[in-house]
Amino acid sequence: MAELSAVLAALEESLPALAEATARQIFAELTTYARVEPAALESAVARNLQTSLIALREGRVPAPGSLYGASQTALERYATGLPIEDVVRGFRISISMIHERFVDLGIAMELPAGEVVAGSKILWGVGDSFTTRIITSYHDLQVDAALRDARHRATVVRALLAGRLPEEAVLSGINLHTPYAVIRCEPAETAAEPIRRTLERTGSSFQAKALVAVDGTAVIGVVAQRPAPLGIPVGMGPFVGVDELARSDRIAGEALGLAQRLGRTGVQSVHELGWRLAAVSRPDAWVYYADRFLVPLAAEENFADEILAAVRAWLHHGQSAQRAADRLVVHVNTVRYRLRRFTELTGANLSDPDDLIGIQWVLELGDPRTA
């Protein structure tokens, strides 16, 4: 239609002036754009207006995937740290300005009302396509940045645990004059990042920042203070100087494994696990006690659990048969019988402190040859 061609020709002629006016309007309405160079903004606005003009000429809304100019704008604005919301608002201002100019020219040049409405719909469709593309591009950029950050964190943490002190560790906030403890946990994959953030945030102090990373299936890092408890087991080594983190890491790994075996959740360190950590570090002694005080009970089949429950209750209640019976809700003679049966099967001497230590050991930790 001749009228539409004339309107679009006039619109194209006005684009340079419209680009300048649009840039001024964006600067006036959006304070975050102060960090964007005026020439860069005018260039982006000119791309937006040209995209809108092409859509009007072709009579169709471009697909989001074809708006390469939007991806370029996203890259430029992301680099300056602009919020995605303001980038979209900036483009909406561009669409509003060109729409207003298109309608003014249409009325002045007597473009049929149907053509004005059709052109308006195309312009708002361009706005929707641009919004879709810009959000997708921003998301991709954020994902890429997150992956780079994750790889960087894991590299720095691994270096620290290996006894090295890369420059990046200091840049990440590691205080060389503050003791740190290594933490380890193995959350579900979907929960790894939220747990990492929680451990890093709550493991940081006023004096020093924690550094925690997702490394494969594990979350590992160094904390300057005891982090908040979580609903999963977290092994923590002792607080040491940064040159001793390898030792703290070894103990954190042992604490995690033991906490998982015992079904304990929250932060588990030497303080919570005590002698148990020393016990698991000596598998030879562990197997010896298991062979003495657990394996012989296999002959009792189902009755073995009742015998062990009686021994456990007796130990946990001050070696009192009556209190153990109250806890188990059985007659005191039943407890005495089960204790006697335990000594008959195992040869244990319940008056010998050495035997009591071994019995307590395997009652808590089980047989090391089983899960």
Notes on the structure:
The structure is a single chain. This protein is α+β, with helices and mostly antiparallel strands. The protein folds into 3 domains: 2-144, Globin-like; 174-273, Alpha-Beta Plaits (2-Layer Sandwich); 282-365, Orthogonal Bundle (Arc Repressor Mutant, subunit A), CATH 1.10.10.2840. Helices cover 64% and strands 6% of the residues. The protein has 16 helices and 5 strands. It has helices at residues 2-13, 15-29, 38-58, 68-79, 84-108, 113-161, 167-171, 192-202, 245-262, 270-273, 275-280, 283-293, 303-316, 321-328, 332-346, 353-365, and strands at residues 181-185, 211-215, 218-223, 233-236, 266-268. The protein has a 5-stranded mixed β-sheet, with helices on both faces. The longest helix is centred in the middle third of the chain and has 49 residues, at 113-161.
Explain the layout of strands and helices.
Elements: H1 2-13, H2 15-29, H3 38-58, H4 68-79, H5 84-108, H6 113-161, H7 167-171, E1 181-185, H8 192-202, E2 211-215, E3 218-223, E4 233-236, H9 245-262, E5 266-268, H10 270-273, H11 275-280, H12 283-293, H13 303-316, H14 321-328, H15 332-346, H16 353-365
Parallel strand pairs: 4-5
Antiparallel strand pairs: 1-3, 1-4, 2-3
Helix pairs in contact: 1-3, 1-5, 2-3, 2-5, 3-4, 3-5, 3-6, 4-6, 5-6, 12-16, 13-14, 13-15, 14-15
Query: What composes the largest sheet?
Result: 5 strands, mixed
Unreliably modeled segments: none
Approximate helicity band:
55-70%
Work out the strand percent: 5-15%
Care to count the β-strands?
5
C-alpha termini separation: 80 Å
CATH class of the largest domain equals Mainly Alpha
Query: What is the CATH fold-level name of the largest domain?
Result: Globin-like
Strand/helix succession = HHHHHHHEHEEEHEHHHHHHH
Strand order of the largest sheet: 2-3-1-4-5
Indicate the structural class.
alpha+beta
Tell me the CATH architecture of the largest domain: Orthogonal Bundle
- What would you report as the Rg, rounded to the nearest angstrom? 35 Å
The total number of structural domains is 3
Question: How many H/I helices?
Answer: 16
- Principal-axis shape equals elongated
Average pLDDT figure: 89
Oligomer: single chain
